[in-house]
Amino acid sequence: MTPHKNAILSVTLGLLLAQTSSAIDFKSLLTNCRDYHNQPVSVVGVARVKGSSFFLFENPDDARSWDAPEEIARGKSVSTARTLIVAPRKDSPMNENDKYDRTWVRITGIVDAYGHNRWNSPCTLLLVEVEGLSPPLFKSSLILSVFRNDSAESVKLRLFNARPRIYAEFDLGPGELDDVQTQKGTAEVTTTSGKTLAKYDMPELARSSEYFDEENYAFYFQFKDGKINRVSPDVAKSWNWHR
After folding, report:
1. For residues 64 and 138, what is the distance between their CA atoms, to the nearest angstrom?
2. Are 143 and 181 in contact (CB under 8 A)?
3. With respect to CATH, is domain 144-239 assigned 2.60.40?
4. 12: buried, middle or exposed (CB in 10 Å: 19+, 13-18, 0-12)?
5. DSSP secondary structure letter of residue 203
6. Are 11 and 101 in contact (CB under 8 A)?
7. Which residues, in sequence order, are CB contacts of 135 under 8 Å at separation 6+?
8. Could you tell me how far CA 4 lies from the centroid of its own chain?
9. CA angle 202, 179, 177 (to 5 degrees)
10. Which of 41, 153, 180, 233 shows a CA-CA span of 20 to 30 A to 112?
11. DSSP symbols for 108-171
12. What pLDDT sits at residue 90?
């Protein structure tokens, strides 16, 4: 089947599931997952999203717990008893759902009552569709790393944790930037065809560092002249990035 036909099939399937899914109360789904196994459902909650990590909470207070520093990258700060894990589509861009972070959303998906994932949550929702229902409900205190491409060519940025396992990747055109929550590991810049241009050992990012932007809870990194370097908040002001 051609990629074009695959895309049409995916859209058609998504529309059908969105039309036939049953609206269900968040708490009911959380406590009775097995009753809905393999069924399409629609549920409303507060999303916490960064890259491939997608959690759904019943209310804003529970969603704030996702901002516990340091341990969130390993899922330890998340109260799994009050959390639904959303599994993004395998063919979707890694950061496609970041715009829903800290907002009320309606999730349509297929219930997997036995896919308890590494956080051992009650069940997983295999994502079909996300509908945003509100603007961000609160300011995030997650520390982000902002990467800017100051070369003349488009590049791809990949981030690896200490295992090493890739946990984020995105394309950056000349002068473009993007933000992500980083872990100790390695940042790698490649050409769009995959040729390695630069690597950088990502350290543990401490708030006591001179490179920490207290106002925006961020660190800044720049790819320029074939190297990845840290940038001070004063220099990064000209990037016009903010929460």
Report:
1. 8
2. yes
3. yes
4. exposed
5. P
6. no
7. 103
8. 26
9. 105
10. 180
11. EEEEETT--TTTT-S-EEEEEEEEE-SS--S-----EEEEEE-SSS-EEEEEEESS--EEEEEE
12. 79
Q: How far apart are CA 65 and CA 57, in angstroms?
A: 10
| Regions of the chain with pLDDT less than 50 | 1-18, 69-77
Among candidate residues 180, 199, 203, 179, the one with its CA nearest the CA of residue 188? 199
Is 120 buried (19+), middle (13-18) or exposed (0-12) by CB count in 10 A?
Answer: exposed
Does the pTM surpass 0.90? The reply is no
3-class DSSP assignment, residue 231? strand
Write the burial class of residue 31 (CB in 10 Å: 0-12 exposed, 13-18 middle, 19+ buried). Answer: exposed
For the chain, domain boundaries: 3-132, 144-239
Per-residue confidence (pLDDT) for residue 43, from 0 to 100: 96
Sign of the CA dihedral running 57, 111, 20, 14: positive
- CATH 2.40.50.140 is right for the domain spanning 3-132: yes
Residue 227: per-residue pLDDT: 97
Question: What is residue 119's predicted lDDT score, i.e. its pLDDT?
Answer: 58
